[in-house]
Structures are given as structure tokens and as C-alpha cells.
Write a structure and sequence with these properties.
The protein is of the alpha+beta class. It is built from nine helices and four strands, in the order H-H-H-H-H-H-H-H-E-E-H-E-E. The protein has a four-stranded mixed sheet. The longest helix is centred in the C-terminal third of the chain and has 21 residues. It is globular. The termini are far apart.
Length: 219
């Protein structure tokens, strides 16, 4: 079986991730490199592990998370679909089982809020893990005076924690926000679509999605 560790150490895959992020640097996007895919893999693993999914499915969602943004190598537009096609070719060439490739490709192809849907538990976990990665260190622009709204919102988030309650009925995204950089309304202006997608993803997993900013429940 192809393992997450093998994928993580595959230099061809890592080249695609680096080159995709270089394109996004030129376009002015926040960080989408190894810190991001690593964080998403860790959170997706946490979600499925806490909810009691089989170990192999947990490993597959980590692989999907690691590969989910390689489509940015082609273009930011429709990057989830192009990334899914790229992932198919990579995993098929490595000899992965067709059923496992199907789960990974489906999750990657449905992770973007523009066209994606939580069509499977793995897709749902990837959505929640991806959309909750909001943090100051993703901002590359070091000139605060030239921050756009995406820079301000990400830079304002001092801490982001995704947590499932003990009863396994709710998943909560808890944000600590420095409102001197970005307001709560700024956050909703650019992330409302993502948060609504998180709500649907949580429902796919049998959970209720809750968003809390600075201790105040907002969703």
C-alpha cells in the first residue's frame, strides 16, 4: 500500500507543491506550500481519527490533504479539478489501488468552495481542515500599509483551533482575532462561502459546525 510517508517524501510531488506555490506568490496569494498542506493533513487526520474512521481511511485523507493544492501549478482557476487529475496520474503511476485513488481524487476535486461539495466523509474532512487554516504566518506581504483584505484577515488571526466536542456532535472553529488588523465583518466578507461549506461538511460527518471569534459564537 502507498503510505502518507511515501507521498510526503516523494520529490516529484514536492516539486509540484513548491512550483504551484511559486505561481501563487506571483499572484499575491497567501502561503499554500508545505506549512499549509501539512497543517491540513494534520487537521483532516484529527477529524477522522476522533470520529473513529478506519486507520487506512485516515491515511488516505492525509494523502488527499497533502496533494489537494497541486492544481495551482496549472492555474488558480479550477485548481481543485486540475489537482484531482494530477493526483490521479501520480497515484496511478505509483500503483495505488483504484478504489483508494477514487476516494482521494473525489476529495481533492471537491475541496474548493466554488464548485466543491462534501460528497464523502473524506471530502468533508478535507474541506473542514483546509478552510480552517487561517493564520498570520500565511501572509507573505510584510508591508502592513499595503495589506489587502485577505492579508488583513489572515494577519489578524492570532490563533485558530478546530475542535470536536467529547460527545462527537459538534465541531468548532475557535479564532482569536486582533481586530486592529481585521474586523469580524472583514472575516465574513471573504470567508462566508467557506464557512457555509464547512457547515455542510460538518453535517456530512454528523456534526454541527460552530464558529467562535474572540469567545463570541457567530455560527
Amino acid at each position: 500500500m502507498i503510505t502518507f510517508d511515501q507521498i510526503r517524501k516523494n520529490e516529484t510531488i514536492n516539486t509540484y507543491i513548491r512550483k504551484a506555490d511559486e505561481s501563487l506568490i506571483e499572484l499575491g496569494y497567501t502561503e499554500h506550500s508545505f506549512a499549509h498542506v501539512g497543517a491540513v493533513a494534520s487537521r483532516a487526520c484529527y477529524i477522522m481519527e476522533v470520529l473513529g474512521y478506519p486507520q487506512r481511511e485516515i491515511e488516505l485523507v492525509q494523502i488527499a490533504a497533502y496533494l489537494h493544492d497541486i492544481g495551482n501549478l496549472v492555474n488558480r482557476v479550477d485548481h481543485s479539478q486540475s489537482g484531482a487529475v494530477m493526483a490521479f496520474r501520480i497515484l496511478d503511476k505509483l500503483g495505488m489501488d483504484a478504489a483508494e485513488i477514487s476516494e482521494i481524487v473525489t476529495a481533492i476535486g471537491n475541496h474548493d468552495e466554488g464548485t466543491g461539495r462534501p460528497v464523502s466523509p473524506m471530502a468533508a474532512a478535507l474541506i473542514l481542515a483546509d478552510k480552517s487554516d487561517v493564520r498570520r504566518s500565511r501572509v507573505r506581504n510584510q508591508e502592513e500599509i499595503s495589506f489587502d483584505i485577505h492579508d488583513r484577515v489572515n494577519y489578524s488571526v492570532q490563533k485558530a483551533q478546530l475542535q470536536i466536542n467529547d460527545a462527537h456532535t459538534q465541531i468548532e472553529l475557535q479564532l482569536t482575532v486582533d481586530t486592529s488588523y481585521g474586523t469580524v465583518m472583514d472575516y465574513f466578507e471573504i470567508f462566508m462561502g467557506r464557512m457555509l461549506m464547512c457547515r455542510k461538511a460538518a453535517e456530512k460527518l454528523g456534526l454541527q459546525f460552530k464558529l467562535t471569534i474572540n469567545g463570541q459564537p457567530l455560527m
